[in-house]
Amino acid sequence: MADVVEDVKTAKIQSGVLKDVLSVVKIGIVNSNLITTFTGLWLALYFTGEGFLSNLHIVFFALVGSALVIAGSCALNNFIDRDIDHLMERTKSRPTVSGSMEPKRVLWFGILLVAVGTLSLLMTTVTAAVVGLIGVVTYVFLYTMWSKRSNTFNTVIGSVSGAVPPVIGWTAVDDTFHIVPIILFLLMFLWQPPHFLALAMKRCEEYRAAGIPMLPVVHGFAVTKRQIVIWIVALLPLPFYLFSLGVPFLVIATLLNVGWLALGLAGFKMKDDMKWAKWMFIYSLNYLTILFVTMVIVTID
Predict the structure, then answer these.
(1) pLDDT tens by residue, 215-255
(2) Is 97:24 a contact under the CB 8 Å cutoff?
(3) CA distance 109 to 74
């Protein structure tokens, strides 16, 4: 009986540790970024005429490397933001706030993940590893340590790191110049401000309490709504640069853009800003998933 009780306790401890680790690395962000990384890699194989099965080693090192680099960056973000995370509802239960993980361990864990992830990317191409490190530097230093706490351009600066994953995927296969990874980068870069500004509207008072100068906190909802629409408008022409993916993709991508723009414009008439921000946030998540999965589907031979 004592052995059974001990086994149960051990299982609970292990479950708690795993939960903390997944929280520290922000597993949701890692998973969503792996979709865009894989799409970049898949399209590179498609456009270069390389086979998927014959390049499984590249697929493995690219995806594992990307996942570890992103996870490590998120862990470092948790370490740095531990002094303000307790002020926000969505971050106050993070292990670095609750004390279930020591800050120094999180710091070294993050550094280790970035290092191992970079080595994994080096098994593909040097360019992929460099692009990954650019993402790390942008997210950890330029966004988390500087712009997030100092100015309303923090979302734009952070968007650079979020736009890197599909480029990592592409350059892991082909590190020569090509228009496709540039468009993938721009798609991700332009997608993020309306996505995160909608979230910032939903969490406006939390950001205000934490002293984070998000756009809706500093300039209000009216300005934020206009900015969101401008960023969405900037997305409209990008799918046409990927005309080589075929008419079905262009139709789906354009419908997604027009639908998002229509919902964005509706915000100027809606009285419930929080409801609108929630709809915009949910739409943005579905937009990204559908868009990048469609790229893969239309290129399956």
Answers:
(1) 999 999 999 999 999 999 999 999 999 999 999 999 999 99
(2) no
(3) 11
Region of 99 (left: φ > 0; alpha: ψ -120 to 50; beta: rest) is: left
Which amino acid is present at 215? L
In a domain, 15, yes or no: no
- 7 lies in a domain? no
Print the domain residue range for 189.
Answer: 20-298
Which residue from 143, 145, 137, 141 is spatially nearest to 157, judged by alpha carbons? 143
Write out pLDDT tens, residues 251-287. 999 999 999 999 999 999 999 999 999 999 999 999 9
pTM greater than 0.85: yes
CATH code of 172's domain:
1.10.600
Phi, psi of 299, rounded to the nearest 5 degrees = -110, 10
Collapsed DSSP state (helix, strand, coil) of residue 88 = coil
DSSP H helices in the chain = 2-24, 27-48, 56-80, 95-98, 103-122, 126-137, 148-150, 154-162, 165-173, 179-202, 204-210, 215-235, 247-266, 273-297
Rounded distance between C-alpha atoms, residue 25 and residue 16, angstroms: 14
Structural domain contains residue 228? yes
Which residue shows structure tokens 């009216």? 222
Angle at 281 between CA 28 and CA 82, to 5 degrees: 50
CA separation for the pair 128, 30 (Å, rounded): 17
Q: Name the domain count of the chain.
A: 1
* Whole-angstrom distance, CA of residue 12 vs CA of residue 66: 30
Task: Give the Cα separation of 33 and 69 in Å (integer).
Answer: 11
> Token digits for 226?
């206009």
With CA atoms as reference, report the closest residue to 74 among 126, 34, 128: 34
Residues 6 or more apart whose Cβ sits within 8 Å of residue 130: none
Token look-up 């890699």 returns 41
8, part of any domain? no
